[in-house]
Design goal:
The protein has five helices and no strands. The chain has 134 residues and is mostly helical.
Length: 134
């Protein structure tokens, strides 16, 4: 049998000190594999295929600004009721019937589907909305 392994490096910088991601994608990936080899010595020899997505690739392919899958920093000043910003928590915006349901909403991009689920629940709390779903 074969297996699939995914490696997620959360803090890869968008802007590099020297060079570009297009030039350094493979050397960066090789360095990551070298670090893993310290714990899994045969890893390099058994990898049959790899796809390396840099922050720049995430921006180019998926439109994720700065390659940040969290749509903003996951820091205390942008968490919980402060996510995405103060006054816009609970998935609502100042614009009537406009809700936030992506990675920029609580709990962020690291919990698949949770912002959308939570947003839908918030929308269903509006008067008359629950009746429309039955």
């Amino acid at each position: 049998g074969k297996h699939i392994m995914g490696i997620f490096l959360q803090y890869a910088p968008y802007t590099l000190r020297e060079g570009s991601w297009d030039e350094l994608r493979e050397p960066f990936a090789n360095r990551v594999i070298s670090l893993i080899e310290e714990y899994a010595p045969n890893i390099r020899g058994i990898v049959e295929h790899r796809q390396v997505l840099t922050p720049l690739d995430l921006e180019r392919r998926f439109g994720i600004t700065g390659g940040n899958i969290f749509h903003g920093e996951m820091s205390l000043d942008q968490m919980f009721v402060m996510r995405p910003v103060a006054g816009w928590a609970r998935y609502r915006t100042p614009i009537q019937s406009l809700y936030l349901c992506g990675s920029g909403a609580h709990p962020g991009g690291g919990v698949m589907g949770a912002p959308g689920y939570n947003c839908a629940r918030e929308m269903l709390r509006r008067p008359g909305m629950a009746a429309r779903t039955t």
